[in-house]
Amino acid sequence: MSHEVTVYTRPGCVQCTATKRALAQARVPHLVVDVDDHPEVLDTLRELDALALPVVVTSTGHWTGYRPDQIRALTLTTTQEGSR
């Protein structure tokens, strides 16, 4: 299965947990990367000017924080792609 959504998180991050939960409930396939386990990704996140977690990277862009509006948009995109 291909994951076009990657969520960069860290333990204890409330917004990270909410984002992962919302993506799972919306059935949006996603890969979770714990930045504590993979500190090498921090430079990449800084290049995106992403200074807060979670960072959600999609095929069309990225955002930081818990963003239900962005998750809904992903749900619509995933649904439309699945019906093709």
Characterization of this structure:
This protein has three helices and four strands; from the N terminus they run βαβαββα. The protein is α+β, with helices and mostly antiparallel strands and 84 residues long. The chain has one domain: Glutaredoxin (3-Layer(aba) Sandwich). The protein has a four-stranded mixed beta sheet with strand order 2-1-3-4, covered by helices on one side. Strand 3 and strand 4 form a beta hairpin.
Give a count of the beta strands, DSSP E runs of length 2 or more. 4
Oligomerization category of the chains in this entry: single chain
Largest sheet: 4 strands, mixed
The CATH architecture name reads 3-Layer(aba) Sandwich
> Which consecutive residue ranges, at least 5 long each, have pLDDT under 50?
none
Class of secondary structure makeup: alpha+beta
Number of separate helices? 3
The proportion of strand residues reads 15-25%
CATH class: Alpha Beta
